[in-house]
Predict the structure of F-box domain-containing protein.
Amino acid sequence: MNALPDVLTQNILNRFLNSDGKSYQPVIYIIEAIKKLSVVCKYWNQIILRKLQLVNSIKMKRYDDDQQTFSYHALKLMKHYKINFSIHCSVHDEAFSSYREYVSEIYVDQMVDNYKNENALVEMDSQVYCLLERYNLIDCKDTEMLFTKYRMVRQWNSNLKFSLTHSHTIKKAKDLEKIVIDSKFDRIQFNDCVLSIPMDQIQALSKPIYPLITSLTFKDLIVDQWVIEYLLDCCSQTLERFEFQISDSPSINFNYLVDKLSTTPFPSIKKISLLWEHSCHLQPLIQLITTTNAKKLFLGLVIDNDQQFTDSLSLHNPGIESFRLSQNNYKSFPFPMNISSDSMSANEIQLELFRSYRNGSIEEDNDILTFRLCKFKIDATSGLRQLHTLNFNFIKSSDFNHVLSSIGYLNMLSCDTVQVNSVQDITDLCQAINVHQQLTILYLYKFEGPEDDVDMKNIYFNQYECLINILDNNHIIKEIQFYDSVDDHNIISDEMIDKIADVLTRNHTVIFIGFYIPKPHTGCIKLKEVLNKYMIENYM
């Protein structure tokens, strides 16, 4: 038999190595994959493994204390076998000193660096800067110090890209102008701070001739309306990503902001994300949805309940590829929207039906699936192939089964609470899951009985038996999570662990399993060992 060409073997193993888990940083999977590949033969060790490439960078700040050991083990193995990989980390992480030749992106927290000698820090790391792709400066209070650091770093790598996370008050227009015009930051985030600058100072500022900003984020801060408008005008030609997540800022006219996003040309825009906790008007939103050039549009809003609507509104924007809509307030007025198969060319539509649903229902009339009180109408006849994701904060088990049977192209379903009347309802729910042919991600966090039935308020079930049932019959689901906080019903036995190990010998699709196990508990350790053996990313 002829051996496979190296390039074909390399491509196959790259796909194997880069299988993504829930967090897209599956270090446990990486460890187990390398262990298995390294014992195949000497030729693979010396030739094939060093040609492999980890696609996603290892982002060290994503890992908590429990994961740090695994992440460093993965780095050690990849370095030993000369697998190509890159790291995003803080300059104070152990990874920066031990694996600096693999670091492609660093985070420099100015609040920490203030206690270090600035010149010594840069001098110590100057050789590493030549290898970097991005430099993230965080929490710099002094703008003069910010530019001093920028100039010192820039001399080592003229192609280096810079990001800034600014978390301090700006009250002078000239300080804002330095960040926007004089700097070379292409990504800027204003986070947990105050941007309060007199309007006349902002109006006197000039616009940059060669703007560089591609990403602009406002998160949890107090900011003046005219400051946002100035920044949007500065980067209107280059802006690719705009994120706005603010709970309260007195001078913000959110409806006007949405209108500006609709009427100002943003030829390079790829993603718009708006999260606003106060009521807003519908018409500017409709205008934004139907006119934006963004391929991804995420809206978390509260619709003004003084507006009267007779029918759902039809939305049409073929350019949108990913659309997510959620209502951010339990008392919000339902967002009236009619979705048909030709509304958007989106390959992903996410509806987060978090609000106003507990007393609602799902009905079907002439193949039109309607979520009452939420006023979402879905054309089930056309299949609505774009509707990939549904999130509920509450759903009845009968409606859960109805959703699965009616939306055949659903990829992801998440439910905070599922109302059931008996354990048999859970069995029926598992059966509905088992026969679905497209569902790959399933999160079920809680089962409860009817509100008016005290004896049935909490439905106790064995989450491990449900898991085994689903994994044994459904080989399509990749990620699954159960959660039930009742300790007495979550004690896992050695026998149950053996059953889970047995079903994993037959199910080669699942890559993430999450559920609740009371800690400390020996079953948790044993189960983790089983999941790690089969390279299953896990959370418990």
Q: What stands out?
A: The CA atoms of residues 75 and 289 lie 43 Å apart. Residues 1-85 form one domain. The chain has a mean pLDDT of 76. The first helix runs from residue 6 to 17.
